[in-house]
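Aim 2 progress update. The chain analyzed this quarter is reproduced below.
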Amino acid sequence: MQLRGIRSYVLRQGRLTDAQARALEDYWPGYGIDYHPGQIDLTRIYQRSAPKILDIGTGMGGSLIELAQQHPENDYLAIEVHRPGVGNLIKTAEGLGLSNIKVICHDVVEVLQYQLADHCLDAAYIFFPDPWPKKRHHKRRLVNPSFLALLKPKLKLNALLFLATDWQDLAEHMLTVCDQDPDLINISGTGKFTPRPAWRPVTKFEKRGKKLDHGVWDLCYSLK
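Predicted structure tokens:
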């Protein structure tokens, strides 16, 4: 399946710090998975059988690091297109000696289309994606029926999809799109948001949103 050619992100790379650049050069072999249009075996890559969780749009990696520390029983696959964030993630993971994080620095749409095998994920996180608040940009929003059609086959039966945002309009958009998907069950009931999961770390974007007096909306779905 080919998703429409509108990307959900714009590359604003910024400058790599020296530490981030060194991390990408020195630690990429241990943490990075190069993108290529061929399926990968996550069990072989992580060298164990454990729950596999996809984190889409990891940013600078702070919340994922916290999750990986708190839940060493899980393996986390980060997808992030911005190299400074990837460099920061693997620098921090190396400093903490974490072995349950890998990262792909590439467009998640192509990763889902070509690189991840079906039924390989126990959960997926989409926390604070770009809200694209202007109406003319809504077509760029990541969560849409075409994207869900790519993501769902990669999830195992009864796998969980967690979403969160501090933009009410985006929250309502994601609620509508996911509630209308026949393969997803809203854990809190159709038309309802879910209480904030106690395990979900507070992200940088969430902190910024609270400073702007934004609310925060969480969603949780199970795959039928």
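The two ends are 21 Å apart (CA to CA). The chain has a mean pLDDT of 92. These observations will guide the mutagenesis experiments scheduled for the next reporting period.
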